[in-house]
Amino acid sequence: MLNYTPIPLTRLQIGRQLPVDIWTPDGRLLLRRGQALQSEAHREMLATHQACMTETDAQAWKKSLERDMRLMRQAGVDMVAIAQAPMPAEILDTDYLEGRDVDGGWLDLQDILRSLLYQGAQAATPLPRLEGIEQKALTLLRHDPDECLFVLFQALPDLNLGYCATHALLSGVVCVLTADKLAQTDADQALLLRSALVMNIGMARPQDSLSRQHKPPDPTQRQIIAAHPPTSSDILRGFGINDDELLGIVQWHHTPDAATLHTGHLTSLRLLSLSDGLIAKMAPRISRAAMTPLGAAKSLVLESTPGTAVLRPAMAAVLGFYPPGTYVQLANGETAVVIKRGARANTPHVASIMNAAGMPLSKYVYHDSGTASNAIFKPLAGSVNIHVSLDKVRRLRLQHEI
């Protein structure tokens, strides 16, 4: 789960915009960045809710405070006044950690990637940050691909986390797993991940806004959506990227059949396009429900074309009909979360989290859905109304050696 750090509430000034999101320790959003503390009563309310920020934001905000204090010392400000200095209202791009400095897991990485995508063309030192994110993601993925899928599919319905970054990471992970199944080289797999991370940098903030919008995109928004592949490619050129294969994959990821890349990287382009569309179908919006993973997998296979006939079944196979982190109803009426892929696409390992009456279980119960008594009755779209503990899932997997 995402790591949080307490907010220094006594250092917040009333009426001053906050440069970070404020959360509860269990991940509920209290204030969005750009909003302000309204009163002393508001401060007390935040204290009651144990207001926190992500570790990424905490490190960056600390750097900005240290810079302000250093400037105050240079200006001869009294040390007592410096010690009581309020938290800055602005965090510079250069205050954020590079990806290689991340010690946490997938949600910490998601937080850092979201910051980079939001900054877009104005991002400072983007290439070292992008390289660090990529290397960390590959390390985590190689270590435990099922936990990777579990965490990211759990994050996908949580629009407060920032859909753009979750979508990018999950699309990249699906690409890498599929490319590995197709015996593509490590270099091709890294190229796919790198392309997925930045394919939507040209519309990161609008992408998050659209996910929370109650109505379909208006004409202006549709224009942004249509223009974002070349916009993303232009931003990457501005970063100093001159890899024509990467730039081409990003530019044509919505229209792969119009690309002129050579055969090897046309396959990579088609993989990214398929993954991008697949994750979008399984992602909920305020304006529409998510497609079930089973429905998405069926559409993936049924919509096959000559150029994707080999790619689509491979992608469906690496995810299965019920990917880790998604929900199912068992034949016994219990609601379960998938915790690991199984020997076959339709028989994953699951953990019951709610009984047949819909009551949460304090102790998760492991089932192998390949047995008739624990068979899956149907998939469930989106999320359930309880918090699923990654720690409990880890312990269950360890206990049953799966």
UniProtKB/TrEMBL annotation:
It comes from the Bacteria. It comes from Rhodoferax ferrireducens. Gene3D superfamilies: Hypothetical protein af1432. This is Phosphohydrolase.
